[in-house]
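Teaching assistant here, posting this on the class forum so everyone can see the example we discussed in section. The complex has two components, and the goal was to see what a joint structure prediction looks like when all of them are supplied at once.
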Amino acid sequence: MESLPPSLLELDAYLLSKIGKDARRRAAVRLAERELRLWHMAVLAALEDFGPLVQRELAARLGLDPSDVVKVLDELTARGQVERTRDPADRRRVQARLTPAGHAVLAELLAEARATDENLLAPLDPAERRQLHGLLTRVLDHVRAENPGAV
Amino acid sequence: MESLPPSLLELDAYLLSKIGKDARRRAAVRLAERELRLWHMAVLAALEDFGPLVQRELAARLGLDPSDVVKVLDELTARGQVERTRDPADRRRVQARLTPAGHAVLAELLAEARATDENLLAPLDPAERRQLHGLLTRVLDHVRAENPGAV
């Protein structure tokens, strides 16, 4: 394996960019085995964590284009993992929500993602992983506060 | 600012992917002010760190397509930052090398990149930054050992 330029390896942004790209690639490969993409998982997770949402709110939460969200919801609906229902508080609003099958598939996807995390961080011991997780969480909070739309 | 799904924020791969994307975006924005792209900086850094290289070796080191490397070298040559010379050890081989102007612009780009690192990691104190840098370096080494072509 050729070495990367040492002057770039000194840059944290370079390390994060390289590792982040590989983390994304691993997740995409894993999801592709189920003919899913990253956004399917994000939509399932958002509906699980936040409860039923109208499409516009779901798009805003994930920083996605509303038309992309409609497409992802259509695909998840066709698989029986999401259903559209009327908001009981305002029957003109159509909300998306997880079905039991959607809940189950998300649990599987999260378990697989945790296994991918284990592989990605294999050289770190449990204390170092907790350390890294804490540092990354603070950096992401900061990045999102600076550029809410971009992340 | 809306919160991201907590079940995703538990995943290190998700944090790394999100932060890495923003790190890359920041670098691209910064380089675009000079009408440069990420690969221009990588090529300048490789020629600085490894010395003169033939195009094929340079492409292999950076995991780039040789035809993309030729394009980047042409652009850097037109700016007077790179020059092509015959390899003194084998005059049939054409090597690319930095000019003094290329050396100077790389020093500026690296200084700007370090300033971007400061902004990206603003919430961390110096000891935490060193900690993060050490952890990320080990993770990248591991990722590259597992997938030499992909990173």
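For the discussion questions: Chain A touches chain B through 69 residues (CB under 8 Å). The first strand of chain A starts at residue 53 and ends at 54. Think about how each of these relates to the inputs above.
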